[in-house]
Amino acid sequence: MHSISIHCQSIDDLIQKLEGIQPPDLIQLYGTFSIKEAKPWAIYLTQCFPDACRIGMASQRHISNGQVKNDGATLILSYFKRSHLTYNTVPYDDQKIERSGQQLFAPFLASDEKNQASAYIVLADTKDAIQDDFFRVSQENDLTISGGRAGLFEPGNSWVLCQENLYQNQSVAVGIIGEYLTQQRDVFVDNIAIGRRMLVTASEGKVIKQIDHLPAQQIYQRYLSNGERISLTLANRFALTTVHNNVEINAVPLSWEGDGGILMSEAIPEGAYVKFLYFHPAQSLYSIVPKIQHLNEQLPESIFVFNCISREDFLEEKPTDKLSMLNQVLPLHGTYCFGEFFSTQFGTRIMQHALTYLAVHESGCGLKREAEPIQLPDERDSLAPMFNLIGNAFQELEQEHASFGYSCANPDTNNDWLHDLQTGLLNRFSLLGRLTNHQDIAHLVVMRIRNFRLINQQYGYNAADDLFAQLAHYLKRRLGTNSVGIEFTCYRLSANEIAVSIHSQIAPNKILRLFRNLAEDIENEEFSTMKKVEHLLTLSLSVGMASVLDQNGRALCDQSHLLIKASEARRYAQMNNQPIYWNGDLPDNASTEENLDWILKIRKALENDDIFAYFQPYYDSKTGEEIGAEALLRARIDGQIVSPAFFLDLIKQTQLYSKITLTMLAKCERILNTYPKVNVALNLSVLDFKHYATLKALRQFFARNKVNGRLTLEITESESIQDYDWISPIINEFREAGALLAIDDFGAGYSNLEKLIALNPDILKLDGCIIKTIDKDEKLQKLVQHTNNLAHSLGIKTQAEFVHNDAVKQHLIDLKIDYLQGYHLSEPLSETEWLERH
């Protein structure tokens, strides 16, 4: 398809310019004239193009081939090759607003699924602002709507066009139907929420009487003028924003009331949380560049713009800022409105001070093109960085405050523990604190990068960290856009896992669809490696989501269990090769790894002494002599011996985890004291060092036992180490007491070589992911060889896991790896079986 536009000063000018024009499929007429003056235009277009779908409206300004026009009319002619159009028009009844919207879309929704429109253009004429209920039908049926409200500065003269007829107080909709039609849309709103959240404690209709139990006028004076009286003109630039019933409300002060209240442009209910909202065109300049660049790469064939009449974004017909950047993609066609329509997965909103667009093409194949970077306007005097700094600073303060209860409840920690040092995101401990101490999370999404290990191996750990930071930034930008309008917080759970908590009461199916689309977009996105921009990488994700309530408002799980359930859903998605899974869809007869019954089963196993150790020996590669054995956790559940792979991630979210660690420590202590010639390796995670009772038990263990190098502490989840200055003294304390230190799973997930080496471990355990195919992969052979040489140069022994055949074993011997461990040498043995060898 393609579109052209023609600007005409008069009907005679129109007749002349249409001469020789091929009949289009869709005509959009936007004119600055009254309904009476528009009649000849409608008649001529009907005579000239009787088979075309013809719509239009009164518009004070319009856009023709990228230029803004203040007079005459703009005619947009669109030609479709693989799509067809259908239309409907109904009166707009402001007494039965929701019913008007239902009637407008009823013929479209009555069609079979094949003939459902991919996108709608809706134009409406009303004397008053359109109310949100008009588009309630779009929320229920997931309709994609663009368009706007007609308007002229002279009241009573506006109109809408449908075919040959002109109407007032009427709405018209055109549906674009095509199997191969794809559409993209976005909205740019020039505002920024500034300051902390405040509670509306008294309101009546559109009058806000009190905020935080103080007169509303006093709040405005306190924050905008340090307590001095403030003019209404200045206050007008600062709206109050909130989200009510999934609809964003931006209320502007209209007048001061005698009792200290403020008459607002929109009603904000008592009990709503509000923030100040400042309107300024510079705020969103930087944030929209990636969006427009992405649009540019998608090969749009037509872009229709619906812009707010309040936006002064042109000078002598030449567009400035955002319009100018969009014009770099394609010459724009469109109109200015007195309210713009924009659809998200949460329904259609009526925007103000906004620029919206609908970009369409008929290829349907998802092609992308190499595109020149979109050029920013002169940014020397831009205020955008300052606004973004203010907004991000307040957002981080609020998120830290929400986690503060966790910090206070654990006096041994400080607020540094709440953040991930690499990305600046809040961390797992912050999320656990918020889940425990606040009741403000409706949904939790856990995303894991599945190919993170491969990226580590190929590009190194710093590049992988940088890639994770890029992903975090991408998520925050996409979720923070005005087109979504949800409250959220991002957390880094581990090396390759990020969590997003949603604080808005939105139906689970809409959040699920949002993250399904996000995950798909992320997997199609290209990320660049640090210092090597030419190396573009893609990410593979598995995503799990958990909600407190289901679609019908029934309880699914406690908020405190959201992380457990989201992790279960993520594992289920990965096992079943699904992009995303939701806890509400987990089968009732869930298999062991998805069932919360594990918590009860493990608790009973602890009570019944059914938590025990299996031992997998490891051997000297030169002599073949057994050096020691790693104590591996096992549980007896329903008479079966069960691996921790089925329950450990789940149990780590509970207090049972520390009890399991203490149980394993006690079993190792008994064996070391009973059998003086054996050596044992015990797995500990960073969580163990941060748990007061576990740390205390370890110190007591070393106080009463002289291990003399017979106990090796293997640190698992080494990627979770954040503060090396904190953990090093603890590790050194245990080493001085006779323990050896091994870094486990080296090469898996995040492994910061420099920092881990700074811990001066005795043993570096190479993860199975870089060992199991070493007999076939020359790159892995070189990686292992260099790692081994580095470790030996520092006086560190190396140990290889996953020795599963003789070829792997021989390669490791040739590379002079010190210790070997794996099923080819010995599978994990029960305590009795292992000790019988000694």
How would you characterize the overall build of this protein?
- This is Sensor domain-containing phosphodiesterase.
- Pfam families: EAL (PF00563), FIST (PF08495), FIST_C (PF10442), GGDEF (PF00990).
- Residues 595-838 form the EAL domain.
- Residues 440-584 form the GGDEF domain.
- There is one protein chain.
- By secondary structure, the chain is of the alpha+beta class.
- It folds into four domains: 2-187 and 300-361, no CATH class; 191-279; 385-594, Alpha-Beta Plaits, CATH 3.30.70; 597-836, EAL domain (TIM Barrel), CATH 3.20.20.
- The chain contains 24 helices and 46 strands.
- Strands 14, 15, 16, 17, 18, 19, 20 and 21 form an eight-stranded antiparallel sheet that branches. Strands 37-38-40-41-42-43-44-45 form an eight-stranded mixed barrel, surrounded by four helices.
- It starts with a strand and ends with a helix.
